[in-house]
Amino acid sequence: MKTASRALGRAVRRTASATGAALARMRGRDAAEPGALTEVRAFGSNPGGLRMLLYAPAHTRAPGAPLIVLLHGCGQQATEFARTAGWFALADRLGVPLLLPEQRSENNRGRCFNWFRPDDARRGGGEALSIRQMVAETTRRLHTDPHRIFLVGLSAGGSMAAALLAGYPSRFAAGAIVAGLPVGAAGTTLQGLARMANAGAAPLPGGWAASVHEAAPPGYAGPWPRISIWHGALDRTVDPANAQSLALQWIDVHGLSPGTFHEVADGGAHRRAWGDPAAPLVETWIIEGMAHGFPIDARRAGCEQARWVLDAGIDGPAAMARFFGLDPHARIRVRHDPSPALEAQAG
To answer: Are the CB atoms for 103 and 126 separated by under 8 Å?
Structure first.
C-alpha cells in the first residue's frame, strides 16, 4: 500500500506540473471572462428525472480538460449554489467546465437529492444513473478527460456524491463531500433523518467499508477515488460526527491506518490527511464556528454568502481544487475574522 501511495503521489505531482504550466498560459489571457451556461435536455434515459446544466468557461483547457461535477444541497438551485460558492469564478480562472445536475421538486419537495433511497443512490439506477449519463454526455460534448472527473457535493448532494464515488469508483478521480453522510448510512427517509440528527457510535473496522464494496461493481478492487471531507463543528442539521464515520469508511477502503495522519491547525480550520502528505488519499477539514453549509471566504472575488453558503474565512473551492491537483500552487489561507456562520435547516 505504501508503494501504491508513493506511485499515486508521483502521478499527482506530474499532473500538477502539467496543470501549473497550463494555468500559467491561461493567466496570460483574460481568464476571468465569463463562460456560457447551457441546459442539456437529451443526455440519456434520465431515470432519476434530473435537470442537466453545463457551464463552459470562455477559456477551457479542452480538449482533455478536467471536469468538476457539483451537487447542490436541499432547497438550493444548482446555478445559484455554483455562483455564490465561487465555483463559476474558479471555473473561469482555471478553465475547467462544470456539470451542474439539479433536482426537481417533482422528485423531492425539498429539492434534495434522494441519497437515502436505494433505487436512486445505487449504481445503475435512478438519480445515480442520471448523473452518470450526464458525465458521459459532457465528456462527449466537450472532450473532457475521462480520467480527471471530480465530484463535489453539499449536504444531500454530498451524501449522493459519496454514493456515486462508491458506485462508480473508476469514473471519478476524487471527490469533496461537505456536511455529508457515509455510504450506506440510510435506506429510508426516516433512517436518513435519524442518521443526520445522530451519527451514532463510530463504526467497527471494516463496518462502513463493506457498504462501499457492496455499492461498487462486482469484484472491483481499486483504485478508489481520493476523498476530501468537510464539516462545520457547529452543524445542527447533520451531526458533525458523520464526518468521522465518513473518513473512517474511506480510510478503511484505501487500506490506511486511522491513527497515522498528518495534522495541521490554522485558526478555526483543522485538517487531517492520510497517505502521502503531498497527495493524500483521504483528508478531513473541520471548521470551528461554522454551522451547516458550504465554506467560503466572502472577501474573495466571486464568492458571496448566501443560503447555506457561509463565510467561514476559508476558500473551500480553492482548497478542493488544490486537493484535486487542478491548482497545485494555490495557497490556502484561513481568515481569522469570518462572519458568524448562522445555522439554517437543510439536508
So the answer is: no
Contacts of residue 120, Cβ cutoff 8 Å, sequence gap at least 6: 48, 113, 114, 126, 127, 128
Nearest residue to 326 via CA among 5, 103, 21, 6: 21
Q: What is the pTM of this model?
A: 0.88
Q: Which three cell numbers stand for residue 130?
A: 442520471
Query: Of 140, 142, 138, 160, nearest to 151 (Cα)?
Result: 160
Q: Which residues of 285-319 are buried (b: 16+ CB within 10 A; e: fewer)?
A: bbbebbbbbbbbbbebebbbbbebbbbbbbbbbbb
Counting Cα atoms < 13 Å in the Cβ hemisphere of 187 gives 3
Adjacent-strand bridge partners of 54: 38, 99
Torsions phi, psi for 100 (to 5 deg): -120, 85
Q: Say how far apart CA 67 and CA 115 lie, in whole Å.
A: 22
Q: Is 155 a catalytic residue?
A: yes
> Hey, how many other C-beta atoms are within 10 angstroms of the C-beta on 28?
8
Which domains does the chain carry?
2-324 (3.40.50.1820)
Catalytic position from the list 5, 130, 155, 228? 155
In this predicted model, what pLDDT tens digit does every residue of 256-315 receive, in sequence order? 999 999 998 887 899 999 999 889 999 999 999 999 999 999 998 899 999 999 999 999
Lowest mean pLDDT among 20-24, 63-67, 152-156, 276-280: 20-24
